[in-house]
Write a structure and sequence with these properties.
284 residues, alpha/beta, Oxidized Rhodanese, domain 1, 2 domains, five-stranded parallel sheet, 9 strands, repeat, Rhodanese-like_dom, Rhodanese-like_dom_sf
């Protein structure tokens, strides 16, 4: 199936496919309860709710992990079964608009070996603009049988990133806003700047003005100049391993292949003062 689906495609599947699982990933860092509240007010019929911090992240250990470490595999598998996901289920994930949260769940499912998973392009906003039905009804789910096996080659650790700095082979791609990358501004983490040698490609650059993904050829053009021979030498990071998944999704959508994720990202990198930090010098 396609990695990216439209609201009208999903609407048709609601009546045609009994093995369809829809997951609402709306979340706000500024208000962690906002996603659940938005889901309770209205959501796509049949959708279950996934909380970024409760369901899609592991336990935060101050001074050691980033803000959204990878979840425990057994706990994640159990949660996916609770949502009714089977080995052969088609899974569609969405958030409010820009797919920044949905891409995290897409990556987690892919990490566990789920192949039939797609993002709803434009998210819940696109669904509403298409005047498709919404509901407050909570779906009744039968326990699924999905058992995922994680692929350890899809991500890298902080120690591996640190080792690479002395003999760089990887190209680190930072998905955060330019002002955070440059060190001019850091609204979330305690230290501003970026990992030395990293390039800055903010995830918002993958999107149109209305929050849908750019056409594949435009995404390919955006990423074609990255200086690596193998896509696995691309390592994506962000603030906490969430929006980096957006760049990974966009590159795969463009046909480039699947880069690797540094899930600890900037928030884990700066958890220790011993790791180097780079900033962009103001030329003015």
């Amino acid at each position: 199936m396609d990695m990216l689906v439209t609201p009208h495609w999903l609407s048709k599947q609601l009546s045609l496919n009994n093995n369809l699982c829809i997951i609402d990933c709306r979340f706000s860092l500024a208000d962690p309860d906002a996603g659940q509240q938005a889901y309770d007010q209205q959501h796509i019929p049949g959708a279950v709710f996934a909380d970024l911090e409760k369901d899609l992240s592991g336990q935060v250990v101050p001074g050691e992990t980033g803000r959204h470490p990878l979840p425990d595999v057994n706990r994640l598998n159990e949660q996916l079964r609770t949502w009714g996901i089977n080995q052969d289920s088609i899974v569609v994930v969405y958030d409010q608009q820009d797919s920044s949260q949905a891409a995290r769940l897409w990556w987690l499912l892919t990490w566990l070996g789920k192949t039939q998973v797609a993002i709803l392009d434009g998210g819940f906003q696109a669904w509403q603009e298409a005047k498709l039905p919404v509901t407050t009804e909570l779906p009744t789910k039968i326990l699924g049988n999905f058992v995922g096996q994680p692929d350890s080659d899809m991500w890298v650790s902080t120690d591996e990133v640190l080792q690479q700095l002395s003999q760089p082979k990887w190209c680190l791609v930072d998905a955060r806003a330019a002002m955070r990358y440059s060190g001019e501004q850091e609204p979330i983490d305690p230290i501003a700047g970026h990992i030395p040698g990293a390039l800055n490609l903010p995830f918002q650059g993958n999107l149109t003005k209305i929050g849908c993904f750019l056409p594949k050829h435009q995404l390919a053009e955006r990423f074609k100049a990255l200086p690596v021979k193998e896509v696995t030498d691309l390592v994506c990071y962000c603030g906490s391993g969430v929006t980096a998944c957006h760049n990974i999704f966009a590159m795969e959508l463009a046909g480039i292949g699947r880069p690797r994720l540094y899930p600890g990202s900037w928030s884990e990198w700066v958890a220790s003062a011993s790791r180097p930090v780079a900033v962009v010098q103001n030329k003015g």
